[in-house]
């Protein structure tokens, strides 16, 4: 049976919500088991609260935790017995372990992922790729959304190839439409980085490049994949997140203003619920860290069980869909694997 | 009496909605009159439909129109009798004309603005600055949002000074909080451009710099001004716009699903209305093009009367608040006026 390692100590709500989310994921997919890394006593105390198939849960004790305040590179080097490093090493070393999920320090997950799991041959820069909701009811993958603040045109072309493989493997998309996120749809738009990336994307085989897209197209779903440099991709992601939260907040406020408005809420509950569900980033799962030899998923630092569960399910689905093979093959076919590391 | 020129032929809904919006603005402020540039016959035909003080409306006939399809620099040079160029020249030449509003080609407004109105002494790059809604019920100014896809650190520092003057003049803010839009709040975040801009902003006098902010902080209103390079600022703006439109669309869809849901809408109409109003970019007015010697406002290309009216009012208010003087003084006090043009 395949296994997903979950860093039980990572994130603001660890270990309580992480353990809960992992256990709940067992109900959604029957073909995997989970390994929880972290303080065994704490984890066992949490596990006691739930009914689950004990044969599908393993706990690996570790004595250390990496916090958000630590410098990532130093932390993953120094804290070899941390839940994050131990988890990543299990992922690298054990063949039955196929995925890793953490809500811990983004920097540590990225640095540790590259250091302990390693890049697929030819991948210059692994990239973070969340799957955002859109108005069509499908997902828009945004790649990169923060792993690489500084990019070269060739990185962006690789992001397109990696995200296309992911869209096929995890979301069953046939010919995912790839758009380049810029400040206008015309071909000449953007700074030199994006102008060169545009030219390169047009020449890249194996992807369905549809041209430049704008910030609004992410939510409209006019592309399946938005390729971005990690700097502006991060700004887009967080702008959308902020908008979603603000909408939920304003609605909450409006419907609490008076007895009458509270009553109105009862009538509109279902419709408001649909909207909130669409905007709820917690239910979306995490961002896959594309380009590594195995599946690594970064869940939001403020993750509750509600977001850990889909992150774990996402890891299982991406494995079942053959993400790593698809990505490796795509790089080989395009001759990118020959390019080697920069 | 001060005058605002309105380009009656600019935008997707010209001249019908532009003329209507301009006439409606006369009701909101009593201290100005309007000059409409464009095809006189068409404009007069529209004007006939409204009751207004005829002494407050002037029409200046022009025979040409600049479209979105034309190369901006060529168009503003070649079409000297276009509603846009004639309007900008009136702004430059007549002392009683204090502002210009257009929903026409952004590129032509920017190029024409710099060419015919000119930059304030010391301004390296004029910048587009819309005033976005936020969850606090105030405005967040986003500067630049698209005039300059490529920036240098010094431009970003100037955007902060210009937007601060605007926040004081047009929105009565006392010490507007300036944040630098990046991919994380920590000081070291971002690419070299934003790292250098951060250092420069810390040293810039006369502004209230609060550090780096993220995409979500725009809607949260955690800063009054978000300073951005025009590339990522544009992406942030459009991502938020897209999110707002998607929310309105999803709500519309949900409440039309069945007779029951249509009924629900009647109960929740007021609350939904408040949300939609907050997200309605049309009611926000346009983006001021900061750094020019007079007030130039770019209204959305799809502007209806509903967005032309606040754009015109915005021009009046910015003038009354002393925008140009405040900006000129700020540059002089900081010694930036000495720097001269790049």
Task: Give the topology.
The structure is a homodimer.
Chain A: E1 2-7, H1 16-28, E2 32-38, H2 40-47, E3 57-61, H3 72-78, H4 83-93, E4 97-102, H5 106-117, E5 127-129, E6 131-133, E7 139-143, H6 153-171, E8 177-181, H7 192-203, E9 208-213, H8 215-220, E10 225-227, H9 230-254, H10 259-279, E11 287-290, E12 295-298, H11 305-320, H12 323-333, H13 336-339
Parallel strand pairs in A: 1-2, 1-4, 2-3, 4-12, 7-10, 8-9, 8-10
Antiparallel strand pairs in A: 5-11, 6-7, 11-12
Helix pairs in contact in A: 1-11, 3-5, 4-5, 6-7, 6-11, 6-12, 9-10
Strand content of chain A: 15-25%
Nearest-angstrom radius of gyration of chain A? 20 Å
Can you give the helix content of chain A as a percent range? 40-55%
What would the average pLDDT of chain A be, to the nearest integer? 93
N-to-C span of chain A: 36 Å
Main sheet overview of chain A: 7 strands, mixed
Count the E strands of chain A: 12
User: Unreliable runs of chain A, pLDDT <50, ≥5 residues?
Assistant: none
Helix segment tally of chain A: 13
Order of helices and strands of chain A: EHEHEHHEHEEEHEHEHEHHEEHHH
